[in-house]
TrEMBL record:
<dbReference type="GO" id="GO:0005634">
    <property type="term" value="C:nucleus"/>
</dbReference>
<keyword id="KW-0647">Proteasome</keyword>
<keyword id="KW-0539">Nucleus</keyword>
<dbReference type="GO" id="GO:0005737">
    <property type="term" value="C:cytoplasm"/>
</dbReference>
<dbReference type="Pfam" id="PF00227">
    <property type="entry name" value="Proteasome"/>
</dbReference>
<comment type="subunit">
    <text>The 26S proteasome consists of a 20S proteasome core and two 19S regulatory subunits. The 20S proteasome core is composed of 28 subunits that are arranged in four stacked rings, resulting in a barrel-shaped structure. The two end rings are each formed by seven alpha subunits, and the two central rings are each formed by seven beta subunits. The catalytic chamber with the active sites is on the inside of the barrel.</text>
</comment>
<protein>
    <submittedName>
        <fullName>Proteasome subunit beta type</fullName>
    </submittedName>
</protein>
<dbReference type="GO" id="GO:0005839">
    <property type="term" value="C:proteasome core complex"/>
</dbReference>
<keyword id="KW-0963">Cytoplasm</keyword>
<dbReference type="InterPro" id="IPR023333">
    <property type="entry name" value="Proteasome_suB-type"/>
</dbReference>
<dbReference type="GO" id="GO:0051603">
    <property type="term" value="P:proteolysis involved in protein catabolic process"/>
</dbReference>
<dbReference type="InterPro" id="IPR029055">
    <property type="entry name" value="Ntn_hydrolases_N"/>
</dbReference>
<dbReference type="InterPro" id="IPR001353">
    <property type="entry name" value="Proteasome_sua/b"/>
</dbReference>
Length: 229
């Protein structure tokens, strides 16, 4: 059977692929202590090799005892945080009190699971104080599974920073080390060191760090400059 040759100048049709997601970079880190939690993010927002802004915090204060850090696809971050804030306001009006951190953690998990067939392209860390006043950090996957632990790193530099946190906070792969509760000053110093290291090795992290320190008195904010190239 003879093959039908294409017309002169005709090029074969190529498949066109469209992705609704865009990764806008950014890194987030959180560490929990006995009666406090520290959570931080960088301020760089990127698209590929272009920097959209150097002044965008990725921390969202949900209450006096709960802070959410989100990075990834920035439009999804904004959508998720708007819906979450609306749900929290509804709870406040109905119950005349703020939702505690473990309840916010469960609410966020439910919201992410609801979108499991078209997930938010977002990396989330939730930090705050639980009902007993102890520090808590929650880490999420895109479809809502979450886990509470003492420390986590998320975002574009998470593969670099999680081993660093395992060593410095978790004391893993170390011999003869006694595990002691981490102090607030030490936790803040580790977060700063982590971001300094990430900015040296990963182009989507840089410019500055925003750090929130959560304790029984509320949320305090610190800012620390990083390299800007």
């Amino acid at each position: 059977m003879a093959m039908i040759e294409p017309f002169a100048g005709h090029t074969p049709m190529q498949a066109q692929r469209f992705s609704p997601y865009s990764d806008n970079g950014g890194t987030i880190v959180a560490i929990a202590g006995e009666d406090f939690a520290v959570i931080g993010s960088d301020t760089r927002l990127t698209v590929g090799y272009a920097i959209n802004t150097r002044e965008q915090s990725k921390l969202f204060r949900l209450s006096d005892k709960t802070v959410l850090a989100s990075c990834g696809c920035w439009c999804d971050v904004l959508t998720l945080t708007r819906v979450l804030n609306a749900r929290l306001q509804m709870y406040n009006h109905e119950h005349q009190k703020e939702m505690n951190t473990p309840a916010v953690a469960q609410l966020l998990s439910t919201m992410l699971y609801y979108k499991r067939f078209f997930p938010y392209y977002v990396s989330n860390l939730l930090a705050g104080l639980d009902a007993d006043g102890k520090g808590a950090v929650y880490h999420y996957d895109p479809v809502g599974h979450y886990e509470r632990n003492q420390y986590y790193a998320g975002g574009s530099s998470s593969a670099l920073l999680q081993p660093f946190l395992d060593n410095q906070v978790g004391k893993k792969n170390m011999n003869g080390v006694v595990q002691e509760p981490i102090s607030r000053e030490r936790a803040v110093a580790i977060v700063k060191d982590a971001f300094i290291s990430a900015a040296e090795r990963e182009i989507h992290t840089g410019d500055a760090i925003i750090i929130n320190i959560i304790d029984k008195t509320g949320v305090k904010e610190e800012r620390f400059s990083l390299r800007k190239d």
